[in-house]
Amino acid sequence: DTAGEWWRHAVIYQVYPRSFADASGDGIGDLPGVTSRLDHLARLGVDAIWLSPFYRSPQADAGYDVADYRAIDPLFGTLADFNELLERAHQRGMRIIVDLVPNHTSDEHEWFQAALAAGPGSPERERYMFREGKGEHGELPPNNWESIFGGPAWTRTTDPSGEPGQWYLHMFDTRQPDLNWEHPEVRAEFEDVLRFWLDRGVDGFRIDVAHGMVKAPGLPDWHGSVSMIDGSHDEAGSTGAGNSGPMFDQDGVHDIYRAWNKVLAEYDGDRALVAEAWVEPLSRLARYVRPDEMHQAFNFSFLSTTWDAAALRTVVTASLAANDNVGAPTTWVMSNHDTVRHASRLGLLEPNSRPNGIGHGDEQPDEELGLRRARAASLMMLGLPGSAYIYQGEELGLPEHTALDDDLRQDPAWWRTGHTERGRDGCRVPLPWKAGEPGFGFSPTGATWLPQPDSWSAYALDAQKGVPGSTYEMYREALRVRREFHLGSGSLAWVDGVGDEQAAVVFANRDVLVVTNLGDEPVVLPEGATVLLASGDLVTEDGRVSVPTDVAVWARLS
Ligand code: TEU
């Protein structure tokens, strides 16, 4: 649609380029692969596509380590391929959001290489966070910070003279040195990078680690944890998915977004900034979407919510309230490339609210239960007002690959944590397009950079397309009805008296009643409600329709 502020109610589909579709045949997805599958996304009915990084990169963190912000990595294609993808998406009425990674560069970025070569005290080092070590010979890191991926957040360099030298900060992998955002050249460079892509016609940016760029003065020691998710929903508005400490959510970071907001405003066509900020409570997250800052922030609350009616209601209420206060749209996220796919999270019998880790012990998700609940959860999410994110493959109901061999895993967040938690490769497995082909049609050669489980033939797109009741057709129908009834720009009203409060989540959005049954007993729909779509089979008795356990329904209110 061409309406103003499209992002307020948009359904945005995340493409993880290395695993979406491969055109070149090397088993790694690429931009021409995305272009070749745009019809899938158009038919699904999404408003926009967010592309995870495709820039030149040594791929130490799957492209979140950028060596050149203005170039396409040869793995993924060329700038001409990007232009074609953008043009064809626009022709089909879909917008394109690209991923910007400003907290850190790759160690292969020319700035970092220059900083290493120039040595201590040089202006080149000022663009990063180089410090002298502690201890008699500088042999101890400058402070006690830990990297998100595990281990110390500092790595010692060797001076151009060959002697052990300064340390540099990296909140993620050792190959992802943090930039110094107090430096005017860093700020100027990224405004220029924004313009580079805006000039090419992109519709927006997803800002990686948007809460991380500014660090507290003096880089004080921190005795808390930097970890992502603790699953705590104890206080109102706590998402259970926050980073804290002197390296996150510092007030100064907002100046950067105020400047970027102005850059985007120079361009027509409603360009948008989306914050990836693991910040809590939600009132802190809402500060990133104040009118002169970003336009959206990912709301990660669902990622750490167990399958519980009261918990889901609390999250929805708190999410809407936090955004109401700043006039920004609420967003909803069930899965992404960093977390265990929700079809598997929700299939754990032992409730697990830690989306980064499956397999405390040897617990394996129940695939059938997980899929049933994931379909219900997604239908509930797509009925909510605001903007919804879909991670590639969730429209197929894909589970996490929980049986990947350790030696095939490539995520640095796995080996750094000393094998206490699985890395993120299990949600990054190449998509299945065609049931009967090698690699399920991901690549013309059958190659896939990670193996797919055999059971994925049942999830392949061609096994679901046109099949009534398939997960793919459910998503497609949900997006169609969502558009028809303008649910994205609607508002939520909780409905009492349908099912038991402890067991069902029931709300109305415009003329649509959304009922999600998490309890053991069927929930009987109110008289006169006409079913529009359902995530599972319904039961009709004496002319009354009821919703079984772990099923969601959209019904028209008469
Ligand atoms: O993620 C930010 C982040 O904090 C992640 O580390 C994430 O929560 C992590 O998976 C927890 O284990 C972004 C990107 O989405 C992620 O893929 C990158 O690895 C990270 O930034 C560094 O760029």
Automatic annotation (TrEMBL):
<dbReference type="GO" id="GO:0016787">
    <property type="term" value="F:hydrolase activity"/>
</dbReference>
<protein>
    <submittedName>
        <fullName>Glycoside hydrolase family 13 protein</fullName>
    </submittedName>
</protein>
<dbReference type="InterPro" id="IPR045857">
    <property type="entry name" value="O16G_dom_2"/>
</dbReference>
<comment type="similarity">
    <text>Belongs to the glycosyl hydrolase 13 family.</text>
</comment>
<feature type="domain" description="Glycosyl hydrolase family 13 catalytic">
    <location>
        <begin position="14"/>
        <end position="428"/>
    </location>
</feature>
<dbReference type="InterPro" id="IPR006047">
    <property type="entry name" value="GH13_cat_dom"/>
</dbReference>
<dbReference type="Pfam" id="PF00128">
    <property type="entry name" value="Alpha-amylase"/>
</dbReference>
<dbReference type="InterPro" id="IPR017853">
    <property type="entry name" value="GH"/>
</dbReference>
<keyword id="KW-0378">Hydrolase</keyword>
